[in-house]
Amino acid sequence: MVVLISGTGSNMAALLEASKDPDYGASIVAVGSDREGTPGIELAGGAGVPTFVVPFRAYTDRARWDAAMAERISGYRPDLVVSAGFMRILGPAVVGRHPAVNIHPALLPSFPGAHAVRDALAHGVRITGTTIHFLDEGVDSGPIIDQASVPVQDDDDESSLHERIKEVERKMLVDTVGRLAREGWTIDGRHVRFGRTEHSVADATYTKENR
After folding, report:
1. How confident is the model at residue 137 (pLDDT cuts 50, 70, 90)?
2. Strands, DSSP E only, in 71-184?
3. Candidates 104, 123, 162, 199; catalytic one
4. d(Cα 38, Cα 31) in Å, to the nearest integer?
5. Which helix H or strand E contains 145, and what residues bound it?
6. What is the mean pLDDT of the chain?
7. In terms of C-beta density within 10 A (0-12 exposed, 13-18 middle, 19 or more buried), how is residue 140 classed?
8. I need a labelling partner for 131 at 20 to 30 A (CA). Which of 85, 179, 187, 198 fits?
């Protein structure tokens, strides 16, 4: 897998640790970012993982940046792209070429976008959580793979709630990516199923056999 990050790379570090176990089923072949000098890129490089950066501001429009990102990713021939704290929307050049998953700090379809934790607090929900989903060309709109809930406490602010969500999402991301790697998957409409299944759609099916 190629893991994409924009900051500290805590989710990437959890995946890197899990992949040390030969039974996990997946390894990180590269870590990419849209920002130079991030702690996560330095962490990956220090662990001996190839890294790359495709700065968004180096391109005149989103489509050219997306195409450049797709080319860099494709050079590593990944079976899966993992957006783990990556703060840019990946477009058709990437998601049309590689199956990609994203971790989002809310229970989708509620509170999509970059301010999910803030939006959940402002709405006054009592339970929020985290979602791992396949990426499509929309904003946090792809088929949901798994979700976990996190209660909102009366004294929560955005920072404290987000930290508790991160604790849950790291474990869920590691567990889910491992299952995808070991078992394969099929997407049937908006339903994701692990392993081979007869319920598949020709234009929206990914399995370990046909990727």
Report:
1. confident
2. 81-83, 100-104, 127-134, 144-151
3. 104
4. 11
5. strand 144-151
6. 91
7. buried
8. 198
CA–CA separation, 58 and 127 (whole Å): 40
Helix (H) or strand (E) holding 13: helix 10-18
Shortest CA distance to 180 belongs to which of 112, 131, 133? 133
Check if CATH label 3.40.50.170 holds for domain 2-113+131-147+173-194: yes
Percent of the chain surpassing pLDDT 70? 92
Does position 64 have pLDDT exceeding 60, yes or no? yes
Number of alpha carbons in the 13 Å side-chain half-sphere of residue 119: 14
Is 104 assigned a catalytic role? yes
Tokens, residue 34: 């849209």
Residue count (the chain)? 211
Q: Are strands 191-194 and 185-188 parallel, antiparallel or unpaired?
A: antiparallel
